[in-house]
Design a protein that fits this description.
This protein is α/β, with parallel strands linked by helices and 261 residues long. The chain is built from nine helices and seven strands; from the N terminus they run E-H-E-H-E-H-E-H-E-H-E-H-H-H-H-E. The protein is globular and about 50 Å long. It starts with 7 loop residues before the first strand and ends in a 9-residue tail after the last strand.
C-alpha cells in the first residue's frame, strides 16, 4: 500500500517543475490528484501523462493563486470531485515577475514587479493554506506542505523580492502550524536549493547578464550538482503522509548541503 493511499492531494503549480514531480510521486503512492496551474493546455498535458498509469484519479482546475475567488472555486471543485482534501502542496511560484528585469537590484526594480512576486509567492500561499484548511477542518484534518526555498535564508543579490517572499512562506508555515494544531492540520514547508526545473532553466538562459550560471549554482552547492525534482518530491511525500505525524511547523531543506559550507 502506498504512503498516500486513499488520500486526496491538491497541488497548485502542478503542471510543471516541483509541483508536477510531486504529482507523479503522489500518484505512485496512491493519492487521487487535483492539479491546478495557469494554462488549460498545460494542465491537460500534465493530466494526460498522469492518466497513462492505471487506476489514476486526477482532475484539473485552472486557478490564479493571486485570486481568493479562483482558489475558493478550486477548493470547491476538489470537494465536489472527491468529497475531501487530505493534503495540499502549495507549489505555485515565480522567480521574477518580469524576466526582462530579473537580476535588477532594489534601486531599479519597480514596485509593480516587487508586489507581483509577493502576491504569487507569499499571498498566494497564504490564501491556498487558509482556504484549504477551512475544508480540512470539516473532514477531520490534514497536511499542508508549502514550497519555500533555501533563498529564504541565503540572500541572493538581484533576487531580494524572491528571497523575501520565500522567507515569508517559512514564517507563514510556522505561524499557521500553531494556529491549526487544534484542528488536526499539520503545516510544514520545503526549502529546496537549486532544482532542475523550467524556472531554474529560464534563469540560466540569460546567466551571462546576471552572473548566476548553472555552473555557479553547482559551485554553490557542496554536493556539486543541482537537484532532480523527484528528490524534492520525496521530501513532499514524507510531509504529506502519516509518516510525519509528529512534524508540524518545520521547514526541511533538501539543498545539497548549502547550509554546511
Amino acid at each position: 500500500m502506498g504512503k498516500l493511499e486513499g488520500k486526496v492531494a491538491l497541488i497548485t503549480g502542478g503542471a510543471s517543475g516541483i509541483g508536477f514531480a510531486c504529482a507523479l510521486r503522489y500518484q505512485e503512492e496512491g493519492a487521487s490528484l487535483v492539479l491546478s496551474d495557469l494554462g488549460v493546455e498545460r494542465l491537460a498535458t500534465a493530466a494526460d501523462t498522469l492518466k497513462q498509469q492505471a487506476n489514476t484519479r486526477v482532475t484539473t482546475f485552472e486557478a490564479d493563486v493571486r485570486s481568493e475567488t479562483a482558489l475558493d472555486d478550486l477548493m470547491s471543485h476538489a470537494m465536489d470531485e472527491f468529497g475531501r482534501i487530505d493534503t495540499v502542496l502549495a507549489a505555485a511560484g515565480v522567480a521574477s515577475a518580469n524576466p526582462d528585469t530579473f537580476g535588477d537590484n532594489l534601486l531599479t526594480k519597480t514596485l509593480d514587479d516587487w508586489n507581483a512576486v509577493l502576491a504569487i509567492n507569499l499571498t498566494g500561499v497564504m490564501l491556498t493554506n487558509r482556504l484549504a484548511a477551512r475544508h480540512m477542518i470539516t473532514t477531520g484534518g490534514g497536511s499542508i506542505v508549502n514550497i519555500s526555498s533555501t533563498a529564504s535564508r541565503v540572500a541572493l543579490p538581484g533576487a531580494v523580492d524572491y528571497c523575501v517572499s520565500k522567507a515569508g512562506v517559512s514564517m507563514l508555515t510556522h505561524g499557521f502550524a500553531l494556529e491549526m494544531l487544534e484542528h488536526n492540520i499539520r503545516v510544514n514547508a520545503i526549502g529546496p536549493g537549486y532544482v532542475d526545473t523550467p524556472m531554474t532553466r529560464g534563469e540560466t538562459e540569460s546567466e551571462d547578464a546576471d552572473g548566476s550560471s548553472r555552473e555557479q549554482m553547482e559551485a554553490m552547492t557542496p554536493m556539486g550538482r543541482i537537484a532532480d525534482p523527484a528528490e524534492i518530491a520525496a521530501t513532499a511525500v514524507y510531509l504529506a503522509s502519516d509518516e510525519s505525524s509528529y512534524t508540524t511547523g518545520a521547514t526541511l531543506y533538501p539543498n545539497g548541503g548549502m547550509y554546511i559550507a
